[in-house]
Amino acid sequence: MLLYFLFGLPALLLGLYAQWRVKSSFSKYSKVRTQRGVTGAQVARSLLDAQGLHDVRVEESKGFLSDHYDPRGKVLRLSPDVYHTPSVAAAGVAAHEMGHALQDASQYWGLVARSAMVPAVQFGSWLGPLIFFAGFLFLGETIAWIGLILFAAVAVFALVTLPVEFDASARAKRLLVSHGILFENEMQGVNRVLNAAALTYVAAAIQAIMTLLYYAFLLLGRRD
């Protein structure tokens, strides 16, 4: 148990800190109104149309910060606080999700790879640990290694997610200014909101890697 905490606790603490940063930054800049008075929905629609992505729909979703882009349905879904609010935070989040739509349109390698990995990740994230511990405790080392390899898909997925998210944010920041939606003095808030969100993905990647290393350490340690 102590070994597990040594591997997992730093990533867990970073994840909690990242979540706090996201909520804190979003809350702060949700109160800062955009100078042009545009809502998140208007930002997303304007940027999509400017890039020729007229077929991508912008819809309201439920839940807090449930914003995401669905490449299968070509739908950009924004949470109520983003969809309806003319704030710097809403503009940043909406533009970020629009960045994913741009990636989809250009077949950005990271988004293509991440989308292709989703079935394997859904399978490996819950079945991998079960197979690993079944093999480690009862069925033998070979079965445990199979479980570890299945879970490795989760770590690879988390690593591939990093450039996808960073690229979407970079596209968003450029277009918000170049298309005249936000002024330069409003970008500090956008940067803080999107950088905080990026930290959550870094924390998730570190947690997945540390869990994978923990499994490998258990197996290699028993072999010795």
Summarize the topology.
Blueprint lengths: L1 H28 L10 H11 L6 E4 L7 E3 L4 E4 L1 H4 L4 H18 L3 H31 L1 H38 L8 H37 L1
Parallel strand pairs: 1-3
Antiparallel strand pairs: 2-3
How would you portray this structure in words?
- Helix content is 75%, strand content 5%.
- With 224 residues, it is mainly alpha-helical.
- Strands 1-3-2 form a three-stranded mixed beta sheet.
- Helix 4 (88-105) packs across helix 6.
- The two termini are 19 Å apart.
- The model has no long low-confidence stretch (mean pLDDT 89).
Sum up the structure in keywords.
224 residues, mainly alpha, 3-stranded mixed sheet, 3 strands, 75% helix
Q: Domains counted in the coordinates: how many?
A: 1
Elements, N to C (H/E) = HHEEEHHHHH
Described by strand count, sense and barrel closure, the largest sheet is: 3 strands, mixed
Distance between the termini: 19 Å
> How many helical elements?
7
Return Rg in Å.
Answer: 20 Å
Relative helix content? over 70%
Q: Structural class of the secondary elements?
A: mainly alpha
The low-pLDDT segments are: none
Outline type: elongated
**Strand arrangement, major sheet:** 1-3-2
Provide the residue-averaged pLDDT.
89
Taken as a percent bin, the fraction of beta residues is under 5%
Number of strands: 3
**Oligomeric state of the chains present here:** single chain
